[in-house]
């Protein structure tokens, strides 16, 4: 399980995709926005470009030009380096660029953030996204230690993390396979410290089972304060929300 001390400042509410719904998702501006609201545990997504650069990005597809859409895993970083990801969020964020994992981790050290890094592996990148991300994490940590929580749905990605960086906290994102086969030994062998589950799937019985197996439970899809109250009633260990203006870092 995740030790309670591992949550910075005893905060157990994580800001989703950097600044939630209040800033461009997966952006450096979002990191700063969430941190200014008091959040220290901040989540962001990571995908790998065709030339092996980890960038902050949730969607697998990306608009290279106004008329051309491709996959992140099929485009080179210099083709998307100049994209404006803040243009839809008003003049305040106009010109916000697509950040790399290195930039996000460096900003995390400067701002006192514990990054919750979600690795989203495309086909064929399951191992490399873990290897490259850990290499970058090690480089950033040479100057100032980071204590990230790295989460993923892909079993091979998590197995690679366990092999090359066993001391880094890992989280397994809940999937239909776990619902259908909750005692799957392959998943248990990953030795993750926590499981990330949508609040809509959490039950008293499931919480008891996971806690007996020494998993911390992190609830997702927390869309309003009622969802957050439900998560608290189920005694989840932490929650992730994009509604960071109404659900603060100390809600739990």
Instruction: Please report the distance between the alpha carbons of the first and last residues.
Output: 17 Å
CATH top level label: Alpha Beta
Q: What fraction strand?
A: 15-25%
Number of strands: 11
The topology string of helices and strands comes to EHEEEEHHEHEHEHHEHEHE
In short:
This protein is an alpha/beta fold and 252 residues long.
Describe the structure.
The protein is of the alpha/beta class. The protein has a single domain (4-241), classed as TIM Barrel (Alpha-Beta Barrel), CATH 3.20.20.190. The protein contains 9 helices and 11 strands. The protein has helices at residues 28-36, 77-80, 101-111, 128-141, 155-164, 176-180, 185-188, 204-212, 225-233, and strands at 13-15, 41-48, 54-56, 61-65, 68-71, 114-119, 149-152, 169-173, 194-198, 216-222, 238-241. The strands form 2 sheets. A 9-stranded mixed β-sheet has the order 1-11-10-9-8-7-6-2-3. A two-stranded antiparallel sheet has the order 4-5. The mean pLDDT is 92.
